[in-house]
Protein 1
Amino acid sequence: QVQLVESGGGLVQAGGSLRLSCTASGSISRITAMKWYRQPPGKQRDLVASITSSGTINYAESVKGRFTISRDNTKNTVYLQMNSLKPEDTAVYYCNVLSGPPPSSRWGQGTQVTVSS
């Protein structure tokens, strides 16, 4: 059984930094992409950043230049370095791992990030 364990959330003042991590463990076939989403209170879950197995990276416009996604393939771990945090970055952050074949999408439990003004 595959498990995704997230860590690194917390409370930080505006302008501060946090680093999230998400590790996939268990019986998992080839990972094709690892992504971070976030869901602010009362809003939908949106994609923040993604990285494919070949290293292609994409960011939401709202985080470009402030957030950096990276991965350690040997540890099946994806990271999200978040700098210059703003109150509007407050959300529950979820990691999402795509793998296959057969195609599979798994979600982490979510980690709260709160940015105070």
Protein 2
Amino acid sequence: QVQLVESGGGLVQAGGSLRLSCVASGSIFSTNVMYWYRQAPGKQREFVAFITFSGITNYATSVKGRFTISRDNAKNTMYLQMNSLNPEDTAVYYCNIVNRGDDYWGQGTQVTVSS
């Protein structure tokens, strides 16, 4: 079992920045991949970015160049640095880990960007 806890969400003005964190605990294997997803009101959950244990990253086109995903394996923590935020980034952001084929989700953290 793996537990994920996100933090760092909040209200920010357009053009501002936020940093999200996701702390993982439990039986975590070194082959895991961690993801950020988001879900805006009335929309489906969408992929934001992922990072492998070794640090390989990939981003959704909509956030590339503005968001940076990173992780600290010693702390079992993943981060999402979000810059140049715009109202379209408003959503609940979820942390996800695929750990030896098993899929776990955090409870989500709300990000609201005002215009």
Protein 3
Amino acid sequence: QVQLVESGGGLVQAGESLRLSCAASGSILLLNAMGWYRQYPGKQRELVARITNGGSTNYLDSVKGRFTISRDNAKNTVYLQMNSLKPEDTGVYYCHAISTRAWWGQGTQVTVSS
């Protein structure tokens, strides 16, 4: 069983930065991949960024060059550094982990004002 706890969301102005953290209850080395999804009201969750156990990353096109996903295996934590935030980045951000099944965090709200 894996528990994911997100932190770092908040209200910022356009152009500012935030760093999201996702702390896992167990070793993230046992997970095939971890990532961040976001969800707008009434919309499906979309993948923002993902990092595999081997360190490979992929990003949503609209965040490439602005967001960076990273992991600290010693702390069992995955981060999402979000720079040059835009109002359209507003949403609830969920941490996601997958191995033989998928786990989700509770979500953290990110609001970017114009």
Protein 4
Amino acid sequence: QVQLVESGGGLVQAGGSLRLSCAASGRTFSSYAMGWFRQAPGKEREGVSSISSSDGSTYYTDSVKGRFTISRDNAKNTVYLQMNSLKPEDTAVYSCRADWIGGRYWGQGTQVTVSS
């Protein structure tokens, strides 16, 4: 069983920054592919960014490219999402997900609200 706990959400003005963290339990964090997802009210959940377990390759959805940066610290069992130049349309509940051979796990989510 893998437990994921997100933190770092909050209220920020447009143009501001937030850094989300997702701390994972388990001894094999380095083998987890990690991803950030978001769901805005009335919308489907979408994948925002991901980072592989092998070579650290990253993915970003088009709407956040150049503004968000995903990173991981395997020594701390944590994945981060640095969000800069935030826009009101980034408002959503952000959740992290871990994928590994043992299964897929989700965190509970953290609210990000960007005011205009």
